Amino acid sequence: MQHQAKKRFGQNFLRDKNLLSKIVRESNIENKHVIEVGPGQGALTSYLAETAADVVAYEIDTSLAPHLNVLTNQYPNLKIIYQDFLDVDLSKEEHELHVVANVPYYITTPILFKLLEVDQIRTATLMIQKEVCDRLLAQPNTKAYNALSVILQYQARVNKMMDVKRQLFYPVPNVDSAVIRIEKRETPLLNEKKKDFFIDLVKAAFKQKRKTLVNNLFEAFHISKKDIENYLIQLNISTQTRAEALSLETFIQLAKEWPYDY
Question: Which burial class, exposed, middle or buried, applies to 52 when counting CB atoms under 10 A from its CB (0-12, 13-18, 19+)?
Answer without folding.
Answer: buried
